[in-house]
Design a protein that fits this description.
The structure is a homodimer of 204-residue chains.
Chain A: H1 21-39, H2 46-53, H3 57-63, H4 67-79, H5 91-108, H6 111-122, H7 126-153, H8 163-179, H9 187-199
């Protein structure tokens, strides 16, 4: 949004020669993540990312055909470390830890709005919906599924449980409150999500 | 969408004199529900509803300030019977029955698309978001909560369980798969939602 940088948005890649693709992508992800986590999707433009990353718009468009794809790929990488699935051997503690990190990002940074707006727009934009699933949600599902499957192998989750259903009953339940905010996303809520599933809600 | 009816959309209320408001509203809900469940929101216009219900556009606008409000109020009433919460005394069976009805409406009629599009648009339209919560989701939440609270009173659900969290882990989990369709909404999924919560997923 800075005026003085206008017209400078096609600045070529820094230095001479071609940088390795991984390095270029890392610079782009850093730039996209920075914008999304501080300003949200309103601040994200190809021009801005080109300026911040020193990667040409031509290259950006070659790898990310749309702003949605750029946002999702960048966002996935920006939150990957924060949303990593720890494995201390205690599945309940690890889930609680991860869900709290997820809730913190979604409720205390512009990321919450970024994600809910992208899910929102995905309902009427098939390309964005595909980008969302391919570049973000299916990967998050896979990572959650891996951690849950390890707990199942150790007998901490029953063998007959489909761990993908747990993804919907944990993270999906949080999404539900974020997308249709009839009830707040509190720490008690997060604790109850894990407790209900692991303890069962029926009288014992 | 019928061409011949164009220009006839301001047809006054049938018969003479003023009909009772409840009767007028019922006619409107019937018209809105009919359109939404057969064609989805694309077919819904104030003109069309005025024609089908015999209620003037002036009256419609007085009671429902936007198409979103009209759609949500009409949809709520259209599905109210189908989505009623039975009470046979068996909470697991009743939940399964209700969830199956909900999933059937969402996956086999245009209603699924209506609801996901309204949730989608609600992410960037504050008025629609308010209408969605006021006219639809908070009422559905209240009805679900009442049935679950009765089960809790009977000791079928533990006294320390916040039944509103169960709403997110049952219907919210379904919404998650409808809004971000990485995984399908199958009958096995519905059965697992109830089973995971009532049996608990930890090894016993």
């Amino acid at each position: 949004m800075t005026k003085q940088a206008e017209g400078a948005d096609e600045r070529p890649a820094r230095g001479r020669g071609r940088r390795p693709a991984d390095e270029v992508r890392a610079d782009v992800f850093r730039a996209v993540g920075e914008v999304l986590l501080t300003e949200g999707i309103a601040g994200l433009t190809f021009e801005r990312v080109a300026r911040l990353s020193g990667v040409s718009k031509t290259t950006l468009y070659k790898w990310w055909p749309s702003k949605g794809a750029l946002a999702l790929d960048g966002y996935f990488h920006a939150v990957e470390q924060t949303l990593a699935f720890e494995d201390t051997g205690d599945i309940r503690a690890d889930l609680l830890h991860q869900l709290r990190s997820f809730v913190r990002i979604m409720t205390t940074t512009p990321a919450g709005r970024v994600v809910t707006e992208l899910v929102g727009q995905s309902q009427t934009d098939e390309d964005l919906a595909t980008a969302f699933r391919t570049l973000y949600s299916s990967e998050r599902r896979r990572l959650a599924g891996e951690r849950l499957a390890r707990a199942r192998e150790l007998g901490q989750i029953r063998a007959d449980v489909d761990v993908q259903v747990l993804v919907d009953q944990l993270w999906g339940a949080v999404y539900h409150r974020l997308l249709i905010p009839d009830e707040p996303v509190t720490d008690d809520f997060v604790v109850a999500l894990v407790g209900n599933l692991f303890d069962g809600v029926a009288r014992t």
